[in-house]
Amino acid sequence: MSTIALTPRQPVPALTIPLVGGGRYVLGATPAPTFDLVVFYRGLHCPICAKYLMELDRLMPEFEKRGVGVVAVSSDRAERAQAMAGKIKAEHLRVGYDLSLPSARQWGLYISASRGQTSIGIEEPELFSEPGVFIVRPDGTLYYGSTQTMPFARPQFQDLLGAIDFAVAKDYPARGEYTGTV
Fold it and tell me: What is the pTM (predicted TM-score) of this model?
């Protein structure tokens, strides 16, 4: 089964997941004023994810100033998600877990099979989703999307802040929406 790509300016799939510390994140239930930023990460086993999420947590006040709601999500179970939140010392970042793999596929994420223990000695889950970063408008449509087949070379959050500033200042439309014949 192939991975599907989402289309800008079209509705994104539903996303309802539990959060570390309690509660649930339901995309669109209370949309952020400007955008929602959904960051899918590989899980506790990924040292690159930990570094990436630490940077996101550090920049959370900047996203909040811009009216951007943020959540980081993985297919990890509660215990592993809690361990990741602790590992990155999450102060501001909401960490979600239990992303189903069918839901990951709906978001266009790639799925990987376990290769055993990682370089940091943590066992990979049998199957897990690879990274993706999505910016969603308050109306639930896709503004920006990026997916990776590997943990490397992800969009940098400082760059996304600059892009959000530009998009808001210039009322820049979502691009890549054309689905007709080429």
Answer: 0.96
